[in-house]
């Protein structure tokens, strides 16, 4: 039997008295079984949320059932191909801030929310072993099934990629020992930069402002859900996987994003010219769709490496672009100093938006998008960022400006022209919050300092009140007559 622990960067409640008694009894007893010792170690570590037992014996299963009842733990079981029975004990705690309960679809479907917890696991699971329910999404289930098949058939842990700051694993099959092309990319939430389990030694990595370690997986899924195929974000799911340890002897359950691998990519944007010569090789509408996506999500990490270039499509010989890596989109509200849009410097950024893009932006439903992001697990503060940026996008591309606005106009509104000079978006938000009179100057950190002070006072990330949005729209009307 092996015991596998799932760790998470969050604080949990103190150990209950009954649990302390159990640990004390087991520690002083010469007849304590391996199962009891594993449970005792699990209970003493307040940072651990669950513990897994692989193929437990009948007597061990009885011990686990009694321990679950005595310690008010949740117990579940499941069957994994080529592994066997997995029995899990789970502490009854609230999920961490950055990964709140998503929708019932553990993958990115279009279903309404339900009382499911993180990555599809039910919060109030019956305390008798039963296979956990899984939901089906027509969008991503094919990808998830392929990943589960590959992982369960493998006796080794997937290989860590050479690049990146967090855990990034290519999930690939093999034939007669020969590796085949990858089917997906898996990014565990507990291995992101700044997390304790980061495999690259970046557990003390300084995060970008407005983000917390562990929140990237949810943002990857939200980007896919909100894009709806418009800019071409690959199919993305949020799932739990049982992966082999580095030695291959143990199983570790990890939650993270699973994204379909872009098999026809021939490189990234850094390998191609976007200085005007690309206009015969790339469809301008593709870069325009990308600019709309990044503006809606306030992307803080759209560099050239996060734009894949695919082979020629159709008879015209045009190449395609595919946006990936959205862990640093939708920062907490007010942290608007670090937008990064590589497309700002492309020649096509000076071309006015076409009718297709204008129609798409006009059809966006801000309230529906916020609800979809919230149901996917995004917090209220980054949801406020989504509402603000979508409102500004519709203002810039609508009304009398339709047909004249360009991607560069979007970047000029959202990005800082100078490092210490607030952007138009920051100034508009400051006016709507009453921090800035018309014609007044906003300091470099004025908006951030206000948000941080409010968050400290409230004990949670700041999201503006409802009346803020009415004042924001009025400020936008005055700015963009």
Overall radius of gyration: 24 Å
Spatial ordering of strands, largest sheet: 1-2-4-3
Q: Describe the biggest sheet?
A: 4 strands, antiparallel
Strand fraction equals 15-25%
Report the helical percentage: 25-40%
Structure characterization notes:
By secondary structure, this protein is an alpha+beta fold. It has three domains: 1-94, Ribosomal Protein S8, Chain: A, domain 1 (2-Layer Sandwich); 131-261; 266-479, no CATH class. Helices cover 33% and strands 17% of the residues. It has helices spanning 17-28, 34-44, 58-71, 141-153, 216-227, 284-297, 355-363, 366-375, 380-397, 407-414, 424-432, 446-458, 466-479, and strands at 3-7, 48-54, 74-80, 84-90, 169-175, 178-188, 236-244, 251-260, 265-268, 307-313, 318-323. The strands form three sheets. A four-stranded antiparallel beta sheet has the order 1-2-4-3, with helices on one face. The longest helix is centred in the C-terminal third of the chain and has 18 residues, at 380-397. The N and C termini lie far apart (69 Å). Pfam families: PI3_PI4_kinase. Residues 184-397 form the PI3K/PI4K catalytic domain. Residues 190-209 are annotated as: Disordered. InterPro entries: P4KG1-8, PI3/4_kinase_cat_dom. GO terms for molecular function: ATP binding; kinase activity.
Task: Compile the SSE list and pairings.
Layout: E1 3-7, H1 17-28, H2 34-44, E2 48-54, H3 58-71, E3 74-80, E4 84-90, H4 141-153, E5 169-175, E6 178-188, H5 216-227, E7 236-244, E8 251-260, E9 265-268, H6 284-297, E10 307-313, E11 318-323, H7 355-363, H8 366-375, H9 380-397, H10 407-414, H11 424-432, H12 446-458, H13 466-479
Antiparallel strand pairs: 1-2, 2-4, 3-4, 5-6, 6-8, 7-8, 9-10, 10-11
Helix pairs in contact: 1-2, 6-9, 6-10, 8-9, 9-13, 11-13
